[in-house]
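[agent] plan:
  1. take the single chain provided in the ticket
  2. run structure prediction with default settings
  3. attach structure tokens to the ticket
  4. add a short note for the reviewer (M.T.)
[agent] executing step 1
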Amino acid sequence: MALRSTIYKADLQIADMDRNYYGSHALTVARHPSETDERMMVRILTFALNAEEALAMSKGLSGPDEPDIWAKDLTGAIEHWIDLGQPDEKRMSKASSRATRATVYPFGPAADVWWKPLENKVARLDNLRIVRIAARSAQALAGLAERGMELQVTVQDGQAWVSSAKDSVEVELETLKG
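[agent] step 2 finished; step 3 output follows
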């Protein structure tokens, strides 16, 4: 018998002063059996960093041809493709060609090693943005994971803070491209 996804609920209160976006989102997050708390919380963070009306979680790890998060217009065309982790050059090129804009959020200790050989190879992809989440920030976010979460996300001057009743985490972000 196959393992099933675990359902998490997250109520997000977002104050993004960099984009002038203020909103509330009630997310239902299906955590794939192979997904860690760290990755799931990075997924919720990236949703908050890019929040807009059309943004939605996709099948994620269950749908290898889809991004983790995306925004589509009313015709079904992909406006924003968002991937987490360390995708290869081919996947980033695919994302860049299928969407108006694409963003990758590498995280974890391998992010720097992953980026160095790809830096020049993806330079030609004008609509691709890469924002590294510091490994210690991603690890600290995992500590906020609960089946039912109320999170406040504040973004200002390229930095983010995620708070819950349990704790508060300062998230270190570094734009590598775009």
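[agent] step 4 note for reviewer: The two ends are 44 Å apart (CA to CA).
[agent] ticket updated
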